[in-house]
Amino acid sequence: MAKPQKVDRFEKARLDKLGKIVELGHDPFGQRFDGHLKIEEARTKCPEESGANGEKVRVAGRIMLRRKAGKLRFFDIEDATGKVQLLFSRGDLSEEQWQLMGQLDLGDLIGIDGAMRRTDSGEVSIWVENLTVLCKSLTQPPEKHHGVTDVETLLRHRELDLIYTEGVRDKLVLRSLILDSVRQTLRGQDFTEVETPVLHAIAGGAAARPFTTHHNALDIDLYLRIALELHLKRLMVGGIERVYEIGRVFRNEGIDATHNPEFTMIEIYQAYGNYESMMDLTEAIVADAARIVLEKSGKTREDGRLILPWGESEIDFTTPWPRKTYSDLFKEHAGCDMADADAVRQKARDLAQQGSIQQEFIHQMETTDVHPDVVVSEVFEACVEDSLVGPVFVIDYPASICPLTKRKQDNPAIAERFELFIHGMELANAYTELNDPKLQEELFLTQLSGLSEEDSMAKMDRDFISALKVGMPPAGGLGIGIDRLVMLLTNSQSIRDIIFFPLLRPEVVSTEGDTEK
Q1: How far apart are CA 407 and CA 423, in angstroms?
Q2: What percent of the chain stands above pLDDT 70?
Q3: If 0-12 CB within 10 Å is exposed, 13-18 middle and 19+ buried, where does residue 441 land?
Q4: 223 contacts 475 by C-beta, under 8 angstroms
Q5: Residues in CB range of 129: below 8 A, 6 or more apart
Q6: Which of 15, 287, 420, 467 counts the highest number of beta carbons within 10 A?
Q7: Is 283 annotated among the ligand-binding residues?
Q8: Nearest to 289 by CA among 185, 190, 393
Q9: What is the pTM of this model?
Q10: Domains (ranges, CATH) in the chain?
Q11: Contact 34/99 with Cβ under 8 angstroms?
Q12: DSSP code of 48?
């Protein structure tokens, strides 16, 4: 039989106060509380002159600070819009209300009726006339001067992080505003938002390791989607000519500052467009979102430039952004022509000696028939991407590493693809979509040969090939990592800072009831 969880002394003290609240005839967990203003709005009703009573207001919030001075008690409460000071006067409250106030702790949620008043020191305040308990908190908040400093604790108990860590809630609210902005930009260009299946019979549309699950009724294995692409293209075949989805995708891979196994992306497809159309659309989406962030922070510039902080530097999102070819950037940063296979292989060896490329890849390169463009791609990632401050569009990739992409008519070795880089981070990926079903099937077969069963690209999506045979219009396709976009727009150096609940290792609870990490 499991032992009952121990109650610490702080929780016991709060439970005692909860009992006294009940004795006073109040519900310690509150009831409906109508008609209250946002604290931000209530503050506007405070008179300018000190000592004068202003309008009567009703507000609700969480107690963040308390102190006393003689027969006065001062509390600071906070809601999603701001803070305000409360003044409780022994002479102006009933005995019952004064006793009720005495049972309050930091973290409690309360409702207040009172008059706005500015103190002699100029502090906007509410002179309390009636107190309503809305929820008794049984948890001791973080120590006010030092707070919770362990990042794992903050992320595991995100509610504490949101309440007590300055700026966290603001960033996550900005995330919602950024998503609203993306949708508004796309609505303005006649795109239709859709929802497609999260469970897939075949994990297609990207090269990634999927999460696997099992459907009992049908007795089949299914995969959590790794991309949104193939279903959206089928909808475009069906006549939804401008279509997009913002959705969660899942990749059974590592975790770092820019990767989480469950993340949000948007994929967009535009019939009768190409990768240049997608560059224009990407600029519009990101610039509009940057403008919203600047407006929300009150930092818009008179010259209209879209400049936001990034660490100790800045990002200038003002459009248009430069467009540089893959081959030119390769030559600039790698110091050789990507068509010179021997020079590229030597560059790969040099980078491996510096630790920028894994020795395992070099061994594979030396002992097996690795395609030259695969070596080019490894070198590009190692010595070019981190140097791309941007925003900059890298365009015209080697066709052999882009199986879903249309080739340039005058040069079939080059794919009409771009990636958008900002401070070394890949933010967007786009193609002129391949709509030739025979060529697509051939490229799938070429790519699938030799892949292990667990690889997401090891099985061909026959339904997608069938849809292409119906006839898909020439189109541009675009994918943007929403989490990375929010990171860049909110000056967040880790993806965990802008995901409400990032994936963490599970806590281990010992037999004594103490939590271990």
Answers
A1: 28
A2: 92
A3: middle
A4: no
A5: 56, 92, 93, 113, 114, 115
A6: 420
A7: no
A8: 185
A9: 0.86
A10: 9-135 (2.40.50.140), 168-322+390-498 (3.30.930.10)
A11: no
A12: S
Tally the C-alpha atoms within 13 A of residue 494's C-alpha that lie toward its C-beta.
11
Per-residue pLDDT band at 450 (split at 50, 70, 90): very low
Q: Which residues contact 53 (CB under 8 A, 6 or more apart)?
A: 47, 115, 116, 117, 127
For residue 145, is pLDDT > 90?
Answer: no
Higher-pLDDT residue of 139 and 403 is 139
pLDDT band at residue 343 using 50, 70 and 90 as cut-offs: very high
Residue 452 has pLDDT above 50, yes or no: no
Contact by Cβ (8 Å): 455, 470: no
In this structure, are strands 323-325 and 392-398 parallel, antiparallel, or unpaired? Answer: parallel
Structure tokens at 411: 């040069």
pLDDT by residue (tens digit) across 458-497? 456 788 888 889 999 999 999 999 999 999 999 999 998 8
CA distance 260 to 254: 7
Q: Structure tokens of 427?
A: 């933010």
Residue with tokens 């980078």: 351
Distance, CA of 253 to CA of 203 (rounded, Å)? 14
**Amino acid in position 312:** E
Q: How many CB atoms lie within 10 A of CB 471?
A: 9
Residue that has been written with the tokens 């309360």 in this structure:
110
Question: Which residue would you say has higher pLDDT here, 200 or 447?
Answer: 200
Point out which residues pair with 212 in neighbouring strands.
223
What are the φ and ψ backbone dihedral angles of 423, each rounded to 5 degrees? 50, 45
DSSP-derived pairing of the beta strands 220-224 and 212-215 = antiparallel
Tokens encoding 307: 């400049």
Give the C-alpha separation, 96 to 391, whole Å. Answer: 62
- Is 419 within any annotated ligand binding site? yes
Q: What element of type H or E holds 16?
A: helix 9-23
- Listed in sequence order, the residues at least 6 apart from 500 whose beta carbon sits closer than 8 Å to its beta carbon are 158, 172
DSSP H or E run through 181? helix 168-187
